[in-house]
Amino acid sequence: MNMQQYNISDNNFEQCIKCTVCTVYCPVVPVNPNYPGPKQAGPDGERLRLKRGEFFDEALKYCLNCKRCEVACPSNVRIGDIIQLARIKYSKSKPSLRDMILANTDIVGTMSSTFAPIVNTTVALKPVKKVMDSVLKIDQHRTFPKYAGQTFVSWFKKEAQAKQDLFPKHISFFHGCYINYNYPQLGKDLVKVLNAIGYGVHLLEKEKCCGVALISNGLINQAKKQAKININSIRKSINEEKRPVIAASSTCTFTIRDEYPHLLEIENDDVRNSIELATRFIYRLIESGKVKLKFRDAAPVKVAYHTPCHMEKLGWGYYSIELLRHIPNVELVVLDSQCCGIGGTYGFKKENYKTSQGIGASLFRQIETVDPQFVATDCETCKWQIEMSTPYKVKHPISILAEYIDVEKTINLNK
Amino acid sequence: MKNCNSENNEFDVIIIGGGITGAGTARDCALRGMKVLLVERFDFAAGATGRNHGLLHSGARYAVTDKESATECIKENMILRKIAKHCVEENDGLFISLPEDDINFQSKFVESCQAAGINAQIIDPAEARRIEPSVNSTLIGAVKVPDGSVDPFRLTLANIIDAKANGAKVLVYHEVVELIKEQGRIIGVTVVNHKTQENNKYYAPLTINAAGIWGHRIAEMAGAKIGMFPAKGSLLIFGHRVNNIVLNRCRKPADADILVPGDTICLIGTTSSHVGFDEVDNMRVTSEEVDLLLREGQKLAPALATTRILRAYAGVRPLVAADNDPSGRNISRGIVLLDHETRDGIPGFATITGGKLMTYRLMAEWATDLACKKLGIDKPCVTMTEALPGSREEEPMPKGKTYDLSNRIKRSTVGRHGDMASKIASDNEFDNSLVCECEDVSVGEVQYALKELDVHNMEDLRHRTRVGMGTCQGELCACRAAGLLSEAHNCAHQAKADLAKFLNERWKGMYPVAWGEALRESEYTQWVYSGICGMNKMEEK
User: Fold this and answer.
1) Whether the predicted pLDDT of B407 surpasses 80
2) What is A10-90's CATH topology?
3) Would the ipTM clear 0.95, i.e. be above it?
4) CA dist A62 → A351, A356, B272, B407 (Å)
5) How far is B42 from chain A (nearest CA, A)?
6) Quick one: closest CA in A to B240, which residue?
7) Given strand B55-56, what is the order of strands in its sheet?
């Protein structure tokens, strides 16, 4: 008998040997007893759902899709994907108005940026928060990230685009919603750093929100539509223009690389290796001796690095950490890798607020013990959560790099 | 020897065998007012009853070759859907023709089905692919029939519970060692209690042998000879459901041509080969059989090739030999009721055998009719309409908007116990915590089984609840169940020994298919129990 052929299974969940380490690493399980945990919700539940769909458990919505179960799994079971796919396939609850608002980051972003001062002031008002809490079920303890008056894209087109062709090497930048609508400064920082090491920065032909919030809120068809637009533009950039695609957000990067093929059935094999995170891209250039960075003299700062869950899943935390260690005046403390609890839009929902804060509690405590000047992380929603839950500011590694880099000397060094 | 004739050991009828036939007969006799004793040497459903496909035959399989069986099957099929709905899943079945099969057989098949009263409909291969996506996509023909699946453990238990409710006395782990004869007449049995090793005598004017293949030996004790034909059938259990509709090949019955979805798993089977009586207590599945089952199974559903196999097992059909058929395939699956008084001149003794799981109720009816005749009782059979316990309430599932975790457990529990699930405690966190995570068996359910369902050991518990039947095959649940067992029976030593036995039994089923993930998991299990729990040390002591 050819034993080999019987060893390969299409049913990824069958690789589970019930060791339960996934449930040990699940951040939700210890704080929310209503969540059955990844083993029960994932491979165990899948068998029951294959028997009959009615065994689907709405409690699966408590999964915040951090994928820490998958990182922990020694058997390579895609537990998080199994749970998300089950939600997509079996959940009967329709996305609410609130879910639509939270999920449609770019539509809401476009509108809000236009009226940024009004929106920012309004959503920060206590009475408005109360109304959002009771009507929309967006927890009143939450503060929405501020919208910028000018989007990153309009700044870029006006101020930066023209000179990008002059650089010897080129990349395309997947800026994502957060940089575009809420925090263009990070995008500007990225342009500054990449330009300094000789890379021209370009926008993709078309860019839509990566869709992570659409997926987690059950708006799958829309997520697929946007993913197709993105992957087509990414393909054009990589295959035709020979420009790798760089993003600053660990979640956008993870979504495009892994969630597209696993959850949305959008294949990306041909381009996946050329979609990467800014810190990894720069670090690898330094490691291979292709570029050098020069930093200016500055007072020592103590920085605590928080590893976002999707960064952990990508296995790329190392690159951001090591890059920050290149900055001479930075004293880096690496925090224990644990979920901050926000899970994108998850923590904004009233029903998840307690779980969300419960998950983050030990991270917040550790930050306070370390007492850094500021926290560094690659994920925008981790940033919101830490800023909402601790007195510390959070910066992106690229912004820290941009702050201490000596642009003139770096340009000369790389000529 | 104690136990002289007294109220406590005199019965109207003694039934030997706690398989489905014995359980059904005990129930029918009890319902007709007899004082019943049932004796079983191990546990309920420990023989062929618990070792088959769990197929709720429509009868279509026998339509062409054995019209009598086919007619019986479809009638009983329709009855079981009503009286035992918590044991039955109405999945439907497909008889598919593959390119290598003779498509002309199909019309003969459909004709024979219709003649037997089976609603067989030819459907388009494309429609077959739509309703059952796992089916071999190269199929050239398909016939839809009212097949289904039936859980033999649940069905047996429901019959036992009702028999007891109607006054029957049931003794498990009591083996018949002698039939008591007086002036050529069987007047009772001597049984040994396997727990205490004590012998007891029980008396009744009629003893019914419902011991399946082991009935051969019981008959010999009485001095009668039955030409039994032990036909071994091997099956493979897959880790999850590949199909939701029963898949059969539309051809004359052959090896490995039925794939049945049952509860969380699916089963491919069977093989058929003659075995000696010396082997019937120790069936082993050979690698040739595994190979054959996989090779043929893939033709029904190609996904089987890459689906994890949980275990392999074999049962022995109690066929009654009629001719010199070496495979046993062509022997009628018809019911055989032997009145040994008229057949062999041995009054007080009858044998009910042959037949199939599907026709157990009819077998019980025939046997009970004979008992009534012998005992001068004039009461009609009601088992074709009287629902079994578990299947009496219309809507046992509490209606809720969403299914939270405890509802998922409830759903599994109701699936197993029907309306009797209301007896299971679910009041607090402990009751609701899981013993078996693969099959959602709660502490409450295990405690209910321990208290009310004649559970003596882990194996019994598995038959009642599915503890240990999931993909982990006891890895996580066995020690928890052993803990509860030890508490209930107040004997840790016995529970530990039982745990070791249970795990070895699980391994026995995994051994023939030990590769890939199943092997990896069993290695992990072994590591947990030997390395962490120190069970290998325990054996050394």
Assistant:
1) no
2) Fumarate Reductase Iron-sulfur Protein; Chain B, domain 2 (1.10.1060)
3) no
4) 9, 10, 50, 16
5) 31
6) A47
7) B55-56, B148-150, B88-89
